Amino acid sequence: MKKQIPNLLTLSRIIVIPALVASFYIEGPAANWVGFTLFALAGVTDFFDGYLARSMNVASRLGRFLDPIADKLLIAAALMMMVAFGRISGLSVLPAVIIMCREILVSGLREHLAELKVPLPVTVLAKWKTTAQILALGFLLVGDASPDLIPSILIGDVLLWIAGLVTVQTGYIYLRTGLKHLD
Q1: Which of 62, 67, 18, 58 is nearest to 38 (CA)?
Q2: 166 Cβ neighbours under 8 A, 6+ residues apart
Q3: How crowded is residue 62: how many other Cβ atoms within 10 Å of its Cβ?
Q4: Of 133, 114, 113, residue with least CA distance to 125
Q5: Rounded to whole angstroms, how far apart are CA atoms 137 and 39?
Q6: For 90, how many CA atoms within 13 A lie in the half-sphere containing its CB?
Q7: Using an 8 Å Cβ cutoff, are 152 and 144 in contact?
Q8: Are 20 and 78 in contact (CB under 8 A)?
Q9: Where are the domains of the chain?
Q10: What's 2-179's CATH class?
Q11: How large is the angle between the packed helices 29-55 and 124-142, nearest 10 degrees?
């Protein structure tokens, strides 16, 4: 059972996605806070599944497979819903598209390199990218439901652009590394 805890935490991130999507169809500012809370809880599980797997020495193939998929599905669902509901709009859609494209590119690259038994480890910069994405999406999920003193939409937009720029850098680094192994 101890070995399954990190995997269950990873699966919980996938399971929460329909509830996150449903929160967009609820009226009023409470819906923003529900979406934010679900997203934040998913973010916490992302930290703890990896931490527990390493500290308890129970990392599994399933966990290594599911973890990046759960992350990408959660980020993609949040981005798509916020664009669809106008919480990300105008030029701010650009970093959202860049983030989605990079995630697909790196996933495909990792899959191909795995067949060649070539690892493509996560870089420190990519961890910062993920942090900026999560913070940006958290602020944007709260949106105009935030207290007047906190400009959540502005903070979220700025962080989304920062995440987009770092996403381009990390995508380039991974692509440059991967191209050495492509025929």
Answers
A1: 18
A2: 125, 128, 129, 132
A3: 14
A4: 133
A5: 8
A6: 4
A7: yes
A8: yes
A9: 2-179
A10: mainly alpha
A11: 150
Q: What is the residue type of 5?
A: I
Give all strands (DSSP E) within the chain, no chain letters: none
The answer to whether 78 and 50 have CB atoms below 8 angstroms apart is: no
pLDDT by residue for the chain (183 residues), tens only, comes to 666 777 788 888 999 999 999 999 999 999 999 999 999 999 888 878 777 777 887 777 777 778 888 989 999 999 999 999 999 999 999 999 999 999 999 888 888 888 888 887 888 898 899 889 999 999 999 999 999 999 999 999 999 999 999 999 999 998 888 888 876
Q: Is 26 left (phi over 0), alpha (psi -120 to 50) or beta?
A: beta
80 Cβ contact list (under 8 Å, min separation 6): none
Contact 181, 116 (CB under 8 A): yes
